[in-house]
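Following up on my earlier thread - several people asked me to post the actual chain instead of describing it. Fair enough. Here it is, all 444 residues.
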Amino acid sequence: MIKKLRYKFLAVTMLCIGMLFAAILLSINLYMTLSSQKQGYDMLERIADTPIPDRTGVSGSQPSNGDVPDAGRLPGHDAPDGPDHTSKPGRQQPANYLDAFRVFHISYDKEGNYLDVSYNMQSELTEEDILQLGEKMWQKNPDASKERGTIQSGYLYLIRDRDTFWQVYFLDYSMERSMTSRLFYLCLFVGLVGMLILFAAAFGLSGWMIKPVQNAFEKQKQFIADASHELKTPLTIINANAEVLSGSIGENRWLSHILEQTRRMNALVRDLLDLAKLDASEKKPEFSEINLSRAVSAAALSFESLAFETQKNYQMQIEENLFGCGNEQAIRQLVTILLDNAFKYSDHNGVVTIRLHAKGKNSERARSETQKKILTVRNTGSGIAPEDQKHIFERFYRSDDSRSRQSGGYGLGLSIAASIARTHKARISVQSDGHSYTQITVIF
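Reply from S.P.:
Thanks for posting it. Predicted structure:
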């Protein structure tokens, strides 16, 4: 239990740290992505909104219909002699040397027909590549309803309406994306290393934090074991003396009360000793291959006389030759506890059923160790309320105190059964509709 508490503490701590780290990492990545995109759009807007001189050299006027701006040359470089595509008047100059390689634009008429493309001749992109980007932009945004957006996650685009034609500006966004990606992986690496360091620190602190709980639990176990042993001897003496007096003076209701209560106390002490033994055991009991069917049958047959005396319908459906690894004595104790509980809380003339079968296997393969064996004990009766079912295997828990006292229960039997199941790495569960039946299932 202490180990589980420690592991739960570690799991909750690391889950909180991991969620915080993921939130920070995603926030940084989202901020850097949006920030770099905003800078890219700002760059495109500066270039797109720069006044373009007309053919008379007057700044600020837009080119007339058919006077479509072409690509500008790099700042500081003279145009070559002779006619050149980059030396036409009205050329729009990039903001700086770096932008000259990353920014380009395409002109279309109002029907969407290609007119002209403007780009730096020293760029790695060809005119065909740029036109393909333009086609993808129109496919994504056919009616130019979105003024800006992304293409292939590596290019930003900005659309400008020039009255008589469209201009679509593009920015190669790969540099910003690469920087954002490197920053993301750097933060991820640093965060994972930090989480490993925090895990080591949390693991060490968890042992220190649960130390008081462990000490209290150990003292509780020791107290239960010591008190059980100390109570066992005086109860035995009281019971023996009461029986001697009963034989000497005959039937007496006061002696009957003493004998009844000593029997109940002996049962309680026996259960407490069993719990103390299970808690104090640092290693599993000796396990070996056992005939599970025979162990269950031996424990179940002893309840036939009880069923006859209480006039209850007792049904045994035990599949033969089912084998498994475990401790036969512990398995018998488990079956005895479940059947005792079923008979105690079944209704008058009720039905108690015990069943052992293999899941999805035939009897010829019953010896397989990987085969699941299912033990179910079912009884008719008032059932267990849904809110009580999750607590039914806790120590000293009783859903109905008055009925438990009448039947002599102390809320320890199912707790012992659950401990035996855990020792055998079995799963135990309870099902009930709350008013007509209760069924406890153990899967080995």
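The first helix runs from residue 2 to 48. That should answer part of your original question.
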